[in-house]
Structure formats: C-alpha cells, structure tokens
Amino acid sequence: MKKTVITLTSALLVGFSTNAQKVEFEEYDLNNGMHVILHQDNTAPVVTTSVMYHVGAKDEQPDRTGMAHFFEHLLFEGTKNIKKGEWFKIVSSNGGTNNANTTDDRTYYYEVFPSNNLELGLWMESERLLHPIIKQEGVNTQNEVVKEEKRLRVDNQPYSRFLENVKKHMFKKHPYKGTTIGKMEHLDAATLDEFLAFNKKFYVPNNATLVVAGDINIEETKKLIDAYFGSIPRGNDIKRNFPKEAPITKEFTAKAYDPNIQIPAIVEAYRTPSMKTRDARVLDMISTYLSSGKSSVLYKKLVDNKKMALQAGAFNLSQEDYGTYILYALPLGKTSLTDLVKEIDVEIAKLQNELISEKDFQKLQNQFENNFVNSNSSVEGIANSLARFNVLYGDTNLINTEIEIYRSITREEIREVAKKYLNKNQRLIMEYLPESKK
C-alpha cells in the first residue's frame, strides 16, 4: 500500500507541475518574415526583449571563421541613432541589463528592462537590425576585443582546447569541425566589404525571431513591434546545404596537446543525431545517468570507489545538424589512460545489455522534471527557450511539451539507444596531453 501511495503522490505532483509550468504564448509573422513570440507574465514589472538570429559559426566561409561571434561584439558598436560607446550606458541608465551569445547554430541578443522601458528595448533591437554602423574603426576595435577574449578563455585556460580538438576529428566535412571563436588570422584578413556582406545576408528580419516576455499588454506590444520592425525590408532567403558526414565505421585514435595542463585526459567521442530527434533526448538521459553529480555512475566508480580518476563524466553535445556524445576522465596517480577507457567501456556495455534499475530511472525522471521547472522559472529563461525552440527546432511549443518526450522515454529505449550509437567501431579515442609530452 505504501508504494501505491507514493506512486499516486508522484503522479499528482507531475500533473500539478505540468499545469503550473505551462507557458502561454502567442506567435505570428510580420510581413517581412520576422517571427514574433509574445509571452505575458504580469507578476513582476520586468520585460525581456530578445532577438535570435539563425546564424552561427557553421554559416561562415571556411577561410573566414569567427565571423558570427565577431558580429556578436560588432553590433554593440553603435547605430545611426546610438553613438559609439553609448549602447551599454543607455541600458544601465534605464535600469536594464543586456548581453549576447553565439553558438555554432545561432546568435542571441537580449535586454532586460523594467517593464515601463519596453519601447526602449524594442527600439534598440530595431536599431541593431536596421541601422548598424559597420565601419573599419569599429571592426578594428572589436578585433582587439575578440583577440583578448581568445587569450583569456582559450589560449591561457587549461583544457580549453578539449572540445575544439574533438570536433575537428569528428567532423571532416561539416562546418561543425571549426570553433565558434574562429581563427584570428581569418578575422584579420577579412575586408570591410566582407563584414558588410555578412550583415546583409544574415541580419535580416526573415532570419530573426523576436521574443518579448514579461509584464506586457499583448495588443499594445503588437502595435509597438509593428511600428519598430514592420517597415524593415525583407532580406534574401538564406539557403543552407551543408555537406553530410560519412558514418564512422571503425574506431580511430588521435592525440591533442595543451600547454596549460599537467594532468592528461582521455576522451571517447561518438557522432550522434540532431538535437531535434528523440534519440538525442535519450542520449541526454544517458549522460545524466552516467555523470550528473557525485552519485552518478562514473563518478562513484572511478573517483569515489576505485580512486582511479580525479574527474570523470559524459555529456551529450546536441546541435541542430549533428550531435557529439563525449565521455572523458582524468587519471589519478599511476592510472593509465587505457585503464580508464576499459572501465568506462564496462559501464557502456552494462547500458547496452541491461536495464538500469527502477530506482535510477525514477531519479533520472526527477532530475529532468527539476530541469524543466528551473528552465521556466524566470522571464529571461522563458524568452531564451521560446526563441531557441522556434529557431532551432521549428516548434515553439516544445517549451511545454519537450518534458513529455523525456517522461515517455523508457528503460528499454535507453538500452537500445546505447546499443545504436555507443559502439567501439563508431568512435574516436583521443588522448589529451600536456604540451611537454609532444
């Protein structure tokens, strides 16, 4: 009887969570192709205005890497009506915050203001789209900024080239083989005309999703959006035809070197399907099972119990076109990298041949339920999710329904997906070594 009561209670809590966390939104297109998503939440006098452009590092020319990330910086330089150096002053003096970020697949800009400054946020984002000032002076300034960012975050950080080296071996044709920050010599060689052409191609309303979320009136917000964005000319349609990767059918090895580390790492990497697939969600659950927290399988085994590793983990890097599933470990003492691979492989084999326990499965479900609740706990987070699901998945309502996909995944599916993707003949084994061993 006790087990029945607990199960019933859990079911009621799940049902309550689903209803409590449902995100209401309205979406539509402007005549110029800009997609608009509105979410009204009047519980606090705060509003987020954000624009996600469907352009990332994968959209760059092979000899002009880093361009998408560079624009994340360049488009804060100023506009026809916002003087150079004034962007952040305007935001802060009006009680707001703002930022931007770039991935391989998209670029995201946002402001968070007191809700009485909604119009200001819309005006600023329309200025960024319609009237950016792209001149050689600004290019030169941001070139130095990006170089300093690379020095701080990549060149002088331990293990910072870890993912870069995995990607360049996993992808031979697709532009995912590059890095978001790109190569500085490519940016140095780019002409002003190339920067202008990049802006003209990708920073157009029909390649953008505008999200306004928070303390708003829907009808008044629509009028403001039409006033600030409706007259912006539509750009040319963007055609994408990225090369496909041949399947990996044989295990291959590589070595990479990092001058900023003293302890090596071992990496197992597998190419996996797009983030939009059900299998990608199953792989999310597998990585959480293996390495989320100190009670996870790899940490308990390699770090706590056997004292073979300083760190061990797994993560599913899901992207729009492909994913990369990565397992890694840092050896402790005299443990060899080969021994770490053997121990990790034992756990993968268990996943492929056995069902995880009901207790571990329920723990997984609870973790994903908690992630779902947390991701929708702030207006800023909701705005980001609405934009991301629309731009990268083509389904804005996944903000409400993706959790149902995770809830429907079974222990049997976890076993079958592990069998499908995590095989020795489908992977890279990479030794990530201190530079001195080269």
Can you put this structure into words, describing what you see?
46% of the residues lie in helices and 18% in strands. With 438 residues, it is of the alpha+beta class. The protein has two domains: 24-229, Metalloenzyme, LuxS/M16 peptidase-like (Cytochrome Bc1 Complex, Chain A, domain 1), CATH 3.30.830; 252-437, Cytochrome Bc1 Complex, Chain A, domain 1, CATH 3.30.830. Strands 1-2-6-3-5-4 form a six-stranded mixed β-sheet, with helices on both faces. Strands 7-11-8-10-9 form a five-stranded mixed β-sheet, with helices on both faces. The radius of gyration is 24 Å and the shape is globular. Residues 190-367 form the Peptidase M16 C-terminal domain. This is Putative Zn-dependent peptidase.
Q: Give average pLDDT, whole number.
A: 93
For the CA atoms, what is the radius of gyration?
24 Å
The proportion of residues in beta strands is 15-25%
The stretches of 5 or more residues where confidence is low (pLDDT under 50) are 1-20
The fold-level CATH name of the largest domain is Cytochrome Bc1 Complex, Chain A, domain 1
Number of domains: 2
* Residues in helices, as a percent range: 40-55%
For this entry, what is the oligomeric state of its chains? single chain
Series of secondary-structure elements, N-terminal to C-terminal: HEEEHHEEHHHHHEHEEHHEEHHHHHE
Write out the CATH superfamily name of the largest domain. Metalloenzyme, LuxS/M16 peptidase-like
Pfam families: Peptidase_M16, Peptidase_M16_C
Family: Belongs to the peptidase M16 family.
Keywords: Hydrolase, Metalloprotease, Protease, Signal, Zinc
InterPro entries: Metalloenz_LuxS/M16, Pept_M16_N, Peptidase_M16, Peptidase_M16_C
